[in-house]
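Write out the 3D structure for:
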Amino acid sequence: MNAYQNLGDRLQREPKSWLVTGAAGFIGSNLVEALLKLGQKVVGLDNYSSGRAANLQDVRGRVTPSQWKLFSAIKGDIRNPATCKRACRRIDFILHQAALGSVPLSITRPLDSHENNVTGFLNILMAAKQSRVRRCVFASSCAVYGNHPRLPKVEEQLGESLSPYAVTKRCNELYADIFARCYGLSSIGLRYFNVFGPRQDPKGAYAAVIPHWIAAMMKAEPIHINGDGKTTRDFCYIANVVQANLLAATTDNPDAINQLYNVAGRRQISLNELFEMLRTRLLPMYPHLARCVPIYRPFREGDIRHSEGAIDKAARLLGYQPTYQFQDGLDEALPWYVENFSRSRPKPKPKKTRSSPRRKR
């Protein structure tokens, strides 16, 4: 039995109280579901700027009625200190996922990115300190590695930031370190590498590439690749991210606390490879994809060229062991993508039929 399986058994025997910020989002809602299934009491905080009430309704349908009664939702904004203080009352652990999570969006709206990602996080830390929360686990990002050339990325080596989003996540890491030093607030930062899975939104200009491409392929829309398609990413299935959060929140290893960890699948996949993997899997259901080819366009400002995360530190100190490799996660998530993206298709308008003129009597 591995560390995560042991943790599941322990949490069911000794339930805790959890705050999940961004609870109606993709990652947040998956964390809520996992915690409820373990019999935990969960408070979800979200302002629904990018999160969707439908995500929490989906969670409700996947847990038992008794488990759902353990969940309470707060509609509020992490930029409001009073809201954060209210949400942190009688909480053991915080899983902080709320953010404006987009590199391009941060370039066009840097003030919004700072207010949500830095000021909002600082409000959560203040509230956690005041409420004596045991630990705050927060979502950082592989974007903090910037232009550092080393692969795989290791936690101790950073390059120059390439976007305001990357700066905000690095600020989170620095603030967490200061709160540990000055106030004794225990925290752990998780640097996510391109998370994917069920409840991921395919819509909008800043949607993640996997759901965006799947939706476009299903609808026979153009597939755009920024650059030459040789850009690589380390895609990490959502179940691995849930595991890392719960291990980080509950570890009693003193060497593991107040640290930063990569959460990755540990495999480089190029955008060209990703395109072909998705097209091949969808082709039996959508024959028009036999003619589908990508359209290449200029590289996008702020994007990292290559990405792969070393997970040795997380494995050693947290017991993190990804249970899903990329293709396993893709195979498990694809039916959800297909079912839910099919529902969102606009229904074709009925053709107008010309009525026969009435004969005069």
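Residues 345-361 have pLDDT under 50 and may be disordered.
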